[in-house]
Automatic annotation (TrEMBL):
This is Diaminopimelate decarboxylase. The keyword Lyase applies. Specifically catalyzes the decarboxylation of meso-diaminopimelate (meso-DAP) to L-lysine. The active site is at C353. The modification N6-(pyridoxal phosphate)lysine is found at K62. The gene is lysA.
Amino acid sequence: MPASTLIRREGTLTMERVPLPQIAHTYGTPCYAYSRAQIERQYRRWDSAFGDHPHLVCYALKANATAGVIELLAAQGSGFDAVSIGEVIRAVRAGGDPKRICFSGVGKSRQEMRIALALGIRCFNAESPAELARLNAVAGEMGKTAPVSLRIIPDVDAHTHANITTGLRTNKFGIALEEAFELYRRIPTDFPNLEIEGLSCHIGSQILSIEPFERTCDVVLGFVRRLHEAGVTLRHIDFGGGAGVPYRKGEKELSPEEVVSLFVRRVRAEAPDPDTEIIVEPGRSMIAEAGVLLTTVEYVKKGPGTFDFCIVDAAMTDLIRPALYGAWHEIVQTGPKTPRPGSLPVTVVGPVCESSDKLGEGRMLDPEEGDVLAILTAGAYGASMASTFNSRRLPMEVLVDGSTVTPLRRSAVLEDITEPEIPLGMVKHPPVTPAMLEAARRAGGRD
Ligand SMILES: Cc1ncc(COP(=O)(O)O)c(C=O)c1O
Ligand SMILES: N[C@@H](CCCC[NH3+])C(=O)O
């Protein structure tokens, strides 16, 4: 987290000018807090790194598609990378310009295509020949022409976690180069309702070294030159996302400036048209460091002797990255607290009924019931991957802007555990009445 966003003042951790324990007490926990200044700063870094080279920054919505976050980025002029029609619709509803939306994903349904065509999105990043044929048919039925890019497989190893590498032939994403070459040549004759817009690729996520992007440029620009020689022109090259952020002390981000200057330099030097528009799709880099997940300690429980358990009210349902990838997030006390000599490291776990429900291991925190902890660098792939497993409610989210805090969802109270299913009607489902909730609140507990 950049020092200007998260600062310790008299021992208390603050985001911008708001003490984090205050957010926890006002809105309840688990609660994500995002810094507006940090989100806008990251967008400006990506955008301005291009200088006057034609470009579009398409924020990857999967990282965090909370309406308030999308609104902020749309107001900055951001484009969006979507992977479902739900994301496309969320972006448009939050003020995103359809002409700046790219639609990726291996499984687009006919209905998703129809809605995206009706909205007039910038382009479909097609991932298979069958998808092209389907899109051609759907566009024809609607009397429209669908703008397409082929997502090619650069076959570059991103040297990241196996579950988040995407640019290899063994991954489900994209089209192999030879097949893509043939498809590009066939589009004008075989798919009359498609119009070639560009080329896209994405090699993986949380990439901390520039080298895989250099290899990607080798492959992509060589391929673009071959296409040009075969008479295929592209309006844009989309290099995808993937720039990594520091999760552990000592790690360094792969900076937007370094990534963008590589793409601009290589396109200017090697593309048939040096002014070809460049698209990037950063997700994590845009939002990860803007967010923390606040959680309250419920219990401290003795462990096997070498460590204790710190049971908090956040869980894998709020932040699944540690359970899913063994990912590391720093966890800190938000109040003025230092561990007492001799205290044991703790494994921070949630209340969910899974042994993998761990948020961190080996942490020196010396926690007590009621302490508010902050799980750092949690803005990306946190709230957007949250679930209601174990009938938990979704985490609260707020936006911090200077000394103002704005809720981005309804407050995290028990009424939020809504029942979207349709009951059979065999039993009468008694409502949780406002009076019952009020009584619980008056009895003093947090929700
Ligand atoms: C097509 C595509 N674009 C962009 C992204 C965003 O990646 P990141 O959050 O690593 O920038 C992803 C996710 O890996 C992706 O699959
Ligand atoms: N969800 C992953 C990243 C996947 C990127 C999407 N292809 C994470 O938390 O790191």
